[in-house]
Amino acid sequence: MTIKAFNASDIENMPQRVRANFINSLSGFKSGNLIGTTDKHGIDNLAVVSSVFHVGAHPPLLGMIMRPHSVPRDTLQNIKDSGEYTINHICTDLVEKAHHTSARFDSDVSEFEPLGLSPQMSEQVKAPYVLEAQIKLGMQVQDIQVLAINQTELVIGQVVEVILNETWVSQDGYVDIESAQSVAVSGLDSYHTTSRLGRFSYAKPNENLHHLDIKTGKARENS
Amino acid sequence: MTIKAFNASDIENMPQRVRANFINSLSGFKSGNLIGTTDKHGIDNLAVVSSVFHVGAHPPLLGMIMRPHSVPRDTLQNIKDSGEYTINHICTDLVEKAHHTSARFDSDVSEFEPLGLSPQMSEQVKAPYVLEAQIKLGMQVQDIQVLAINQTELVIGQVVEVILNETWVSQDGYVDIESAQSVAVSGLDSYHTTSRLGRFSYAKPNENLHHLDIKTGKARENS
């Protein structure tokens, strides 16, 4: 076991691709989602994104960082044009197809077709869900801003529809995304299943934590 | 298996705590980190945060969403005052202690002491690392902005130091955070270990994906 410290200039001096892999690994595990959109001509688009994150619950908001010159550029343009998109959790069975959406398919090709996935329409959003996904969110754009520091774009959307198996929703609102087989992502290309260590009670300074029952969100007996 | 669709008013009408659990689960898996800071009087602070995300690799930037009126308010104030903080991956052994930092300890109490954790200083940043953590990042604030849509604050920092076991760094820069036992978080209180499905090659439209070797980042034979 050799502990190493990298300083700012060590990082700056890495080859570009090495630095990209290195820094993309360091935030910790990430969400893995497929973003569904439709362009002005009615052609659907699907892009793998690992940058979706929680912004707030009331109103229900999720953020997403987009690089204007990277592959999901069609996605960003479609979101700007239509104002709507879907977020579809990547589950274990969909990992390879999801990763394949990062290929540079032509703009006039819907990624659904070559990958053998099915668009699913809804009355709530003008963008396709992935039929095969297990947890699907319909989103309306609330704000898009360019981050001055590196010209990436922060897209903030409001959750206007949630489609999932009701049995995964606990009594206290927690959604068991592990039972839904949603995957976690690390770095640019690594996908992981998960195994729950536990749900823990709201913490107080001088009390031990309790394990919570997954389904009720209440402290377990003898925990 | 009962598929249910929740629309915007179903979500709006949930009790506040249920909606918080529900929406916090829906982004997918999140990073689990302990944020180390020091206040003006030299008292250390440690707070569990699941909102750290990747912003860019060059310069190396990570973002973090902070709620001004939630428990890590000391953390946000300290970051504003000192301009520096540390991000420490929560590993399996640290889950209970990490979750416990969310208790409302008094501002004049360093969370390190009651939780039995050790601050580790560095010449690169004026904030304490968690000695017991396996992956540690030293951060300098680059930008803090209030998101107009819900008054949360987006903190963007630059990675100026990375301390980890060199054997986890692959030849192509990927960091094997699973071998480091970094955990994934779902919702507000659930912690998970991971199991890798695979690293996949850069995708091209008409080519099958290859499995990559974890340590080299190169396509495996017969993959």
From TrEMBL, chains A, B:
The keyword Protease does not apply. Keywords: Flavoprotein, FMN. InterPro entries: Flavin_Rdtase-like_dom, Split_barrel_FMN-bd. It comes from the Bacteria. Residues 26-174 form the Flavin reductase like domain. SMART domains: Flavin_Reduct. Its cofactor is FMN. GO terms for molecular function: FMN binding; oxidoreductase activity, acting on the CH-NH group of donors, NAD or NADP as acceptor. The keyword DNA repair does not apply. Pfam families: Flavin_Reduct. SUPFAM superfamilies: FMN-binding split barrel. Belongs to the flavoredoxin family. This is Flavin reductase family protein. It comes from Brumicola blandensis.
